[in-house]
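Field: sequence (string)
Field: structure_tokens (string)

Example rows 1 and 2, in order.
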Amino acid sequence: MHLILDKINENTELIVKTVNENKSIIDLKPSIDEWSIIEIVDHLFKIDTNILHNVLLNKSTENVADSNEAFGFDKMYHILVNKRINKFESPNQFTPLLTNFEYDVHINEFSKRRSEIVTFVVNNPNILDNSTFQHPRLGFLTRKDWLNFLYCHSVRHFYQMNEILELINSKG
């Protein structure tokens, strides 16, 4: 359990560092149809909030898997990170809708939400049971699978942030 939580913490630090080091350009978009870095952070915050409220804090035990990790980290990483070429449209509720770019507020809220998730799991280790919750594309995932998803999904977007930075910096 602690391995995935450590990975989530490391990823959070990388994202916060990237945003803080690039504040002057985090609202720039590579194209009109692509997200800026701050929009990616908003998207991750919305996903994380959903995972916290609808998966980790959900008391439902209606659907269960044979183990507490039905999907698995390696498969999740392969689908979300190794196969990043496959793009999916985000469901509307997770699409960034930033109208006021308060970078410090957004990155602090993102970091705070991540901390809430990690603290909750550390303080409630039994929460990582066999209960499953529906993912719109991946099917039923256990809570541990959802933590793997949270990490792998954010790694996918961290690579996207770096690609945006490279593109913006190459244009000077």
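Row 2 begins here:
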Amino acid sequence: MSNNLNIAPNLPLPQHNNAPQGNAPDVNQNVRQHPALYATVQPPQGNPLANNNIALGDGEQRNQIVQDADRQRGFFSSIGNAFRKLYHAIAGIVATESRELRNERIFSARHSHLIDALARPSSENSLAQNAQVLDRLEQHATTMGRPLHRDDIQKMVATGENIARALHHASPDELRQLEQGHGIVWENDDGEFLIQSNLYTTRALSWYMAANAAAQDVAPGRPADAYSSLPSNGAFILKDPDNRLYTFLSQAPTCTSRMSSHVAERTATTETHRIGGLIPSGKVAQKGIEDYRNCLPGQGGSLLFDKLKNQELYVKFESVGCPAYFGKSERHEEGTALGRFFHALGRNIKHAFNFAQTRSGGGEVEGRRQEHVYKGRLEAPIYTPFKELLNTAREIHPDYKEMLGKECDSSLVKKWGLPFIESTAMALKSWPVNGNKPDQRISDMATALLQNIEAEKQKLGGTEHGIERRGAEVHLNIFSHEAIQG
């Protein structure tokens, strides 16, 4: 039996005996049949920038605001306030939740057969069957304010796992079809299906990534002081043989080019982003998929991704991205152009505001797993001692860079991260300053720094997936789980 059900927006929709007939599906009837997918999803309440508003208060509140202002003062803080006000003005012009929820209900009604099939775990070892993993994901969704229930998450994880399984087992011919934009074939007891990329599959793969991160958190033998692999804010690097995940995600109709400087030193992307599709920006053309209902893990509003060297994938979940103002929509989406334009404009403004905030202050590091060493979680234990080590070396001998025979500058940490710090510390540990003997103070500082690095690596997750660690990013291999391999 071959269903060959295609969920792509650019191909005709097949008919099934169990699907409503006629020009329009019975949306409400199908939604009731699939309550865990959309009917239980409650739209986020309030304004997304409500926590940033400044309210009148007593003297203590005022003092706190003044202290915060001192930390945030400067150029980026001032333009950040302007961005915030402009975002408020634009984001409220057109209602978003009703539009997006209506489109999702149409999608659910039209594709109920495939949704049901994909949402069934294909193995008893499935992460969608792991109660500990689901507990972690449910807690994460609640903490992050995601409008998802446990049943929603479970179905998303099972769906993402089945898509990952199809990508993992794809034959060379099927991979060529995928690269040409023809989707990926998946089979189960109901027959054979053709799946193409869209927002629904993007959410599913994202929650499956999150499930793999949660599985690392609950793995036996994990150190008690280990940092969570399911952060509130952070970056992921995944093994991606033959760029299978990258290729599939890139083919979502709403996927757009993004100007970004993340992981610029390890990207495998050679194209540069063009502003408005015309003006060269000089920045790598990374990719983004916007979720206007904020149902992704982490910050929830946008998926930023890029292919890296060594067949790896960079992923970052942001609160808002940089969606195209006149981007493509999916086949089932109706009447989205005007509303999407204004919401895309608001999100681009909010993204600029977020960028300004990150430049004006580092913020709290709890819950963050950034790919950096010079800010965030690794700044205090590694980057600060490293700067102190270089300053001490400079005091002992002004020509320390030349004596080491290498370029040794803290600015290079932004490019190369932990490997650069490690190699420099190793060189300074045995640096022959006094004749043939190393300076004891320098040697002790370098030794302590190397010990800090090793301790932080263990808390961050070690190197179990064979991915070079350059910062505090989370490392995953979603294809290595037994439910995928079987």
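free_text_note (row 2): The first strand starts at residue 2 and ends at 6.
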